Amino acid sequence: MSEPNIQEAVKQKYGEAAKRAASGGTANCGGGAELSCCDPITKDLYNDAEKAALPEKAVAASLGCGNPTALAQLQPGEIVLDLGSGGGIDVILSAKRVGPAGKAYGLDMTDEMLELARENARKAEATNVEFLKGYIEEIPLGDGTVDVVISNCVINLSIDKPKVVAEMFRVLRPGGRLGISDVVAADELAPADRAERGSYVGCIAGALSFEEYTQELSRAGFTEISIEPTHELADQMFGAIVRAHKGWS
């Protein structure tokens, strides 16, 4: 499948997932969505208190493989950007963590997800949020405008990961950080091996290896890089926590 076709397939699948959640269904873990990144473990990624504070449709639309709002250790007053924000669950939770002095942006390329996310934010009475339409390879924010970039099982879907990493570095302020949940492959798996384990739109075929991820982050200028596997999604394919910092120099 060519790169434009991959991007269109991803947009279509996640648009369909948003429509299911908006109509009262569940976007994750089934429904013919072929979203392998949504492993049954995702039902336990958010604690009861977090889920109770969210609109039902935000929880239903969750397609992540982790809880980046927890791993990013967000602080009051910080500006947060969620790449591939989907139904808005991590944006809304981030907005609560950073408080009225902070702000949470969500970026998504799918109209259906953006519509659902904005509805969820209204229901959650989250006023310090803003959802932007665009691509994670071309973030529509200025240089050095955010303190933290989070993402939940989305970067693996990009067709130009070096560009995504460069864009994350660009929009972060000096001293800013990444707190990402993503799918990562064992280093010994070649791209063909990853494709055998799952589709691109299912978050498997497009995943970087641990070594590749580290190299891309380092090449962009990130430091203090750590990638920690949390659970296995497929044979030698893992949900993982990715952390890194943008230095002050």
Question: In a nutshell, what does this entry contain?
Answer:
It is built from nine helices and eight strands. The chain is of the alpha/beta class and 249 residues long. It has a single domain (3-246), classed as Rossmann fold, CATH 3.40.50.
Task: Tell me the layout of helices and strands.
Layout: H1 3-22, H2 48-52, H3 56-60, H4 68-71, E1 79-83, H5 89-98, E2 103-108, H6 111-123, E3 129-133, E4 146-152, H7 161-171, E5 172-185, H8 191-197, E6 208-209, H9 210-220, E7 222-234, E8 237-246
Parallel strand pairs: 1-2, 1-4, 2-3, 4-5, 5-6
Antiparallel strand pairs: 5-8, 7-8
Architecture overview:
The structure is a single chain. With about 250 residues, this protein is α/β, with parallel strands linked by helices. The protein has one domain: Vaccinia Virus protein VP39 (Rossmann fold), CATH 3.40.50.150. It has 9 helices and 8 strands. The chain has helices at about 5-20, 50, 55-60, 70, 90-100, 110-125, 160-170, 190-195, 210-220; strands spanning about 80-85, 105-110, 130-135, 145-150, 170-185, 210, 220-235, 235-245. Strands 1, 2, 3, 4, 5, 6, 7 and 8 form an 8-stranded mixed β-sheet that branches. α7 (about 160-170) links the parallel β4 (about 145-150) and β5. The model is unreliable at about 30-35 and about 40-45 (pLDDT under 50).
Listing every helix as H and every strand as E from the N terminus to the C terminus, the arrangement reads HHHHEHEHEEHEHEHEE
Number of helical segments with 4 or more residues: 9
Question: Helix content range of the residues, please?
Answer: 25-40%
* Name of the top-level CATH class: Alpha Beta
Integer-rounded radius of gyration? 16 Å
The CATH fourth-level homologous superfamily: Vaccinia Virus protein VP39
The number of distinct β-strands equals 8
- The CATH topology label is Rossmann fold
Regarding quaternary structure, what we see is single chain
Distance between the termini: 41 Å
Which class best fits the helix and strand makeup? alpha/beta
Shape: globular
Query: How many discrete domains?
Result: 1
Q: How much of the sequence is in beta strands?
A: 15-25%
**Overall mean confidence score, pLDDT:** 85
Largest sheet: 8 strands, mixed
Uncertain stretches? 29-36, 38-44
CATH architecture annotation name: 3-Layer(aba) Sandwich
